[in-house]
Amino acid sequence: MALSGKYVSKNLEIYGKEGFSKKVDAKGYEVVVDSKGELLWEKENRDEKPLLIITSEQVTKEYLNYLDEQNISWIVCGKNTTDLVKASKILYEEFHVERMAVVGGSCNKWCFSKSWSTG
Predict the structure, then answer these.
(1) DSSP-assigned letters across all residues of 48-100
(2) What's the DSSP call for residue 44?
(3) pLDDT, tens only, 88-118
(4) From CA 87, how far away is CA 9, in angstroms rounded?
(5) What confidence category does residue 17 fall into, taking pLDDT thresholds of 50, 70 and 90?
(6) Helix (H) or strand (E) holding 108
């Protein structure tokens, strides 16, 4: 899904606040957690399940501009790490996501379930 390599910001000014950018309305999204804003992507042009990146407030403004240029929606929430409970609320309220499946490594699943149990 992500391209090989790592995004390296030249300008290290962080975004530093909660926010989101919705590029398209869709029935579903491919949601990726990238708390540091380092993954590389091709320009988004999928209509059925477009990409949506969740990252923390430590992401650089430059990386969010990069996502905007790639036509990729994003959510920023959580001071130092992604706040998955808040992200889920934004997914529901702003992107109209009512159901989701958590796939990936055991760490992703554990972190997600832990955030719900303490959130």
Answers:
(1) SS-EEEEE-TTSBHHHHHHHHHTT-EEEE--SSS--HHHHHHHHHHHH-----
(2) P
(3) 999 999 999 988 776 666 555 455 555 555 5
(4) 24
(5) very high
(6) helix 106-118
Supply the pTM of this predicted model. Answer: 0.87
Query: What is the Cα–Cα distance from 85 to 114, expressed in whole angstroms?
Result: 10
Q: Distance between CA atoms of 105 and 67, rounded to whole angstroms?
A: 24
Joined tokens for residue 13: 């000014």
Please give the Cα distance from 104 to 95 (Å, whole number).
22
19, β-bridge pairs: 76
Q: Residue 51's beta-bridge partner residues?
A: 30
The tokens describing 27, both together, are 């029935």
The sign of the CA dihedral 34, 95, 80, 15 is positive
Of residues 37, 73, 39, the one with CA closest to residue 57: 37
d(CA 87, CA 19): 10
- Residue pLDDT, tens place only, 23-58: 999 988 999 999 899 999 998 887 788 999 999 999
What angle do the packed helices 106-118 and 84-95 form, to 10 degrees? 90
